[in-house]
Design a protein that fits this description.
- The protein is α+β, with helices and mostly antiparallel strands.
- The chain has four helices and five strands.
- The chain has a domain of 83 residues: 2-Layer Sandwich (Alpha-Beta Plaits), CATH 3.30.70.3270.
- 32% of the residues lie in helices and 13% in strands.
- The strands form two sheets. The chain has a three-stranded antiparallel beta sheet.
- The model has no long low-confidence stretch (mean pLDDT 90).
- Bound molecules: iron/sulfur cluster (2 copies).
- The site of one iron/sulfur cluster has 14 residues, from α3.
């Protein structure tokens, strides 16, 4: 580069705005498709485990019995597979910059207790049918035992 071209470039740059932003003093622009950390609306989670099975880095652990959803944020590669495969659409990715941490911890979300099972109310006819079926079964078992004893 000749001195003339260099001088022209240098003087031109003096009057241009900086090419970089002064983060964190100037917030970075956030786009809708940005991938931040995975969030779970745990109240809508059904603990089906689809997110866990589709995670390529084994970052998610779902315990259906304990109703817990756990994520190891250090293992997450922010691929969005879990969000795409969640049948309840309770997973999402925020668009914020994920802050660094000093400790490798897992984040555990505890789901609410399961809804009570609906009570089955039998009619008198259904109760009688069940009692008759049980009596028939007991009689058949008794007859089988007697025929075995006489053989
Ligand atoms: S896929 Fe969705 S509903 Fe199923 S366990 Fe994961 S977060 Fe919950
Ligand atoms: S974004 Fe990808 S790596 Fe991270 S938890 Fe979801 S599936 Fe796993």
């Amino acid at each position: 580069m000749s001195y003339l071209a260099f001088a022209r470039e240098m003087i031109g740059n003096l009057f241009k705005p900086p090419a970089t932003s002064e983060y964190p003093f100037t917030p970075t622009k956030v786009y809708e498709a940005d991938r931040g950390k995975v969030l779970n609306d745990i109240n809508n989670c059904i603990f089906c485990g689809m997110c866990m099975r589709n995670c390529p880095s084994d970052a998610i652990t779902v315990d259906r019995n304990a109703r817990t959803w756990k994520i190891n944020r250090f293992a997450c590669v922010q691929c969005r597979e879990c969000v795409t495969n969640c049948p309840k659409k309770c997973l999402s990715m925020d668009t914020e910059y994920t802050a660094p941490d000093t400790k490798k911890t897992e984040e555990v979300l505890q789901g609410p207790p399961p809804p009570p099972k609906p009570q089955v109310v039998l009619t008198e006819a259904q109760k009688a049918a069940i009692a008759a079926a049980q009596a028939k079964k007991a009689a058949a078992a008794k007859a089988a035992a007697e025929s075995k004893a006489n053989a």
